[in-house]
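LAB NOTEBOOK - FOLDING QUEUE
OPERATOR: T.R.
BATCH SIZE: 2
PURPOSE: Compare the predicted structure-token outputs for two unrelated chains run back to back under identical settings.
PRIORITY: normal
REVIEWER: second-year student, initials M.K.

ITEM 1
FIELD SEQUENCE / FIELD STRUCTURE:
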Amino acid sequence: MAKTYKEINEKIASGKAVVVDADEIIDIVKDEGLKKAAERIDVVTTATFGPMCSSGAFLNFGHSSPPIRMGEIYLNDVECYGGLAAVDTYIGATQPSRNKGIEYGGAHVICDLIDGESVYLEAYSQGTDCYPRKEIKTYVRLADLNEAYLYNPRNCYQNYGAAVNTSAKRLYTYMDILQPNMGNVTYSTAGQLSPLLNDPYLRTIGMGTKIFFAGAQGYVSWYGTQFNTAAKRSANGVPEGGAATLSLVGNMREMSTEFIKPAVYEKYGTSMFEGAGIPIPVLDEEMLKCLTVEDKDIY
């Protein structure tokens, strides 16, 4: 029996919805069968927590007196993008510090701000008639900013390739250290918990979908960069390589560093781990069948 979003939302509002996670649903369906479980279960929660270099934050500092049109911008010695409006910037998670290099980068600045720490702002300008100030140096905290939101052009990769090293020397990569002569294999996935592996055709996930993002309520803002609709798929719909991705946005003021962490990959660079969770409504048996994907079915 098919359910509608309206019916499921009404059950959630009344406190009668049955919600389980992507691990639990596998055994439930094995015990109860697809038909009975589809009638009883309303929502299955999915999630991922992994490194995503395609991450950063939009910040608005507010205007100083006299005002400045920021062109060259640094936060804790990490360069930010100055090609936006007068006091807007985008700080990328992978941008390294001028002095500390990859040991402290944009990801660290973002997490410091979320933790309420003071961050040193330097900004420089050529000066204009309407923005006469040419430099500003001060400390700012998240509470001082007009706006601060995390924005990921790409996250929640729907499957991803494993990495091996066929050369005779050790390689330092964003997939961690690869030992020579295929001495190890590295991979990054949440497996059967992963949102886009549980909804392989994105029936319920799209622009405007509410999500859990780094401890806050966030949204899917668009399809993510490097979204590949032509990926080869297994019989269960799981792509056999990189396929769908999501662009995510969320309010940094509501986030917690329990669910977002900076990372440093030796001899490679800075990245950031972010928690993203997506609830998937059980609309019908076909949807539930997708939600029972297991690690052994993901290649």
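ITEM 2
FIELD SEQUENCE / FIELD STRUCTURE:
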Amino acid sequence: EEALARAFDLVRQINKTPIVVNDSRGFFTSRVIGHFINEGVAMVGEGIEPASVEQAAAQAGYPAKVLSLMDELTLTLPRKIRNESKRAVEEAGGTWATHPAEAVIDRMVDEFDRPGRSGGAGFYDYDDSGKRAGLWPGLREHFTREGSEIPFRDMQERMLFSEALDTVKLLEEGVLTSVADANIGSIFGIGFPGWTGGVLQYINGYEGGLPGFVARARELAERYGDRFTPPALLVEKAEKGETFTDAR
């Protein structure tokens, strides 16, 4: 506790907002923002118009559009993280769950040599000064398919729900122990839309409360994959009529 208090003092001296996260692969913010990015990239791989994916992120309230953010982080970074995470999971006797975004990232790097902004080419084109020049036309040529459109709300909520559901898992795993830390960290740390009040408050405030969120998550899971299956903690709280709160 003394070490934690000293850390809090230091963080406040540099005018930052501290949160407490227990040791785990990816910790909180890096792990959760990866789900946001993966959903956007996966939608491109499904044949959805890339400009629509970007617009969905913007209208959901994200400060950075998902494909532009991927370019800023570089496409090679999540691939390195994925390979290390996969190795760790398999060494521990687990089974790696492949995300549909992985194939898109691999093609972008290996087939098209577009590793992100630092490499001068990614989901976007860049001019000689490094300024973003627009979405790469090759995305439409190589990925976009007619008839692949999905409801705009689904596009938005796939990104929002992917982050919210994994945050609940972090509570289950004990990586996060405070609802307030989750909400604050999600907004200030990874740009979760501010209108939600934070990633767990988004669940609390969803239409129909936690039961409504669980029902919608199951609907998304049926349409887009098991990664949207609500965690046991979320289902339990919904059944008990509870919300995510630090109040005792």
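REVIEWER COMMENT (ITEM 2): The mean pLDDT is 91.
FOLLOW-UP: none requested
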